[in-house]
Amino acid sequence: MESVERVLIIASVKKTDDLNWIRELVNKYRSAWLVTDQKSAELLARENIFSRLEPDRIIVFSGRRPEELSLKIYKISTPDIVYICDKYNVLKPLVELFRIAPVKRVEC
């Protein structure tokens, strides 16, 4: 049975070795929101991870107006828990927001 927690996954990955953590979360939380960067999105798509999530819950963080986009993501996802795995520091504005937000955080 899937948890009723509202989950947000923030992830930047560059190699398939980094995917196990994300794969486990996506399998556990099928209704999670996933925010990633363009390069990571290409890898996640190749590895068939996107197909496990609802398409309207996948956001590619473009970097244009990052603070504004971060606030929008916070508002639409309204997470109870945020899983952060920004190994390559490309989602920094979003990660910084969620580090000060009143939500439970788990970092890889």
Structure characterization notes:
The chain has 108 residues and is of the alpha/beta class. Helix content is 37%, strand content 21%. The protein is built from 4 helices and 5 strands, in the order E-H-E-H-E-H-E-H-E. The protein has helices spanning 19-28, 38-46, 66-77, 92-100, and strands at residues 7-12, 33-36, 58-60, 81-86, 104-107. A 5-stranded parallel β-sheet has the order 3-2-1-4-5. Helix 3 (66-77) crosses helix 4 (92-100). The longest helix is centred in the middle third of the chain and has 12 residues, at 66-77. It is globular, with a radius of gyration of 13 Å.
Write a brief caption for the model:
With about 110 residues, the chain is of the alpha/beta class. The chain has helices spanning about 20-30, 40-45, 65-75, 90-100; strands at about 5-10, 35, 60, 80-85, 105.
Task: Estimate the helix proportion, in percent.
Answer: 25-40%
**Structural class from helices and strands?**
alpha/beta
- The best one-word shape is globular
The overall pLDDT, averaged over residues, is: 91
Adjacency order of strands in the biggest sheet: 3-2-1-4-5
Low-confidence segments, given as residue ranges, are: none
